[in-house]
Amino acid sequence: MDLVLIEALKVDTVIGVYDWERTLTQTLVLDLELATDIRPAAAGDDLAQTLNYAAISERIAEFGAQYSFELVETFAERLAEALRQEFGIPWLRLTLRKPGAVPAAGAVGVRIERGEQGAGH
Ligand SMILES: Nc1nc2c(c(=O)[nH]1)N=C([C@H](O)[C@@H](O)CO)CN2
Hints:
binds the ligand Nc1nc2c(c(=O)[nH]1)N=C([C@H](O)[C@@H](O)CO)CN2, alpha+beta, 4-stranded antiparallel beta sheet
């Protein structure tokens, strides 16, 4: 299985369960591993044959601006669903960190895997 990577992507969004969190934008930090077969793109040196990490990063920024969930779980689940559907990603691992949410921790967050590894190959 090949992977396209997006690491330490900063995403601005309204997120949180507390009243004060509903009034401001916070920055989440995302790592994504996106399964694909890179051989067709490599064979043809053709961006159209692979997952365009720039386009996906832009979509994630749009998603952050569009929604204002309470839980990081909801953000992760809904984003994974949207990316898999819109970009035809058979499997992904998404790590979402919310820096500063727990001052004593470097970051807190969630990690999810969705889809089937090897699907579509
Ligand atoms: N498992 C979770 N725990 C907590 C969340 C969350 O989204 N998932 N959120 C909060 C608050 O919004 C917190 O981030 C404010 O600092 C608390 N626990």
